[in-house]
Amino acid sequence: MRNRQKSDVEMLLAREFLEHELCLPVRALRSQGPPRPDVCAVVNRDGREAVLEIELTEYHVDAKSDQNGGSPGAELHSWWERVRECLLLRLTQAPVERHGLVTLKDPSKFPKREAHVFAEELDRFARGYEFRAGISIADFDLTRVVVRFAQGHEYSHSESAPLPPFQPAFPLLARYVRGLQLWKVDCYSTWTCTDTSAAHVGLRPDYVADLIKGKSAPGKHAWAENSEKWLLVYASGSPIVASAGSPPSPADWHNPELQAACRDSPFDQIHFWDLPHRWSERWKPRQ
After folding, report:
1. Which of 52, 195, 240, 270 could form a disulfide with 284 if both were Cys (CB 3.0 to 4.6 A apart)?
2. Can you give the residue ranges of every domain in the chain?
């Protein structure tokens, strides 16, 4: 049985794309399970009804279809969301006026099964750090703290102070974290991970070609008779690695690998859609 939440998201995406991106009125829409394509839509096109069967796949700038585990950035995003949920639960039970920023040593290495322990260490560190009188912000890493005194909206008179050893009190922070920043704020806040807040984005034609090839395998789908076969590759923008950025140059559309993948696929139409930047491109057939 298909995941109900995933099916609902695919239905919403298909309707949004057809009605608002392509201006095709949708008369009927339903979710389908394997081996059928994800969504079946009946649309009004040029005064006539057309039946479209649409397979959807999400684009990540850092993952190819044959990569074990999918997108590393998406996996990190999912892990950090679990950390945030644990932090929010702690803050709900016992608020603290701190805001933190964490940067990992290696975004591909993090305690996957210990999100709750990682959150506990961050929370305990924030609660245990004592700001000096008159200090409003502290930037620190694993070995020292740089303190800035507030003067209006400017910071000056920086000084350094040693931090207590992270081992053995904070073993996960010592192992995985490269840098920390901690703010003393007048509201109840939480932590942010820099590695999930910024990333190189852009269109990788070879990655998209790989996605198309993966969806074009013989026997992959069972299509209804007289339906149009569509593939919608979409970039959702969440996580940050699921974005193609601004529309690329026309030269990217002529990438030989991408053109060959489109040409050899069983799909009647292939569309690429970037949601956060609100642009789309039809790759098959060429417009």
Report:
1. 270
2. 4-61+201-284, 72-196
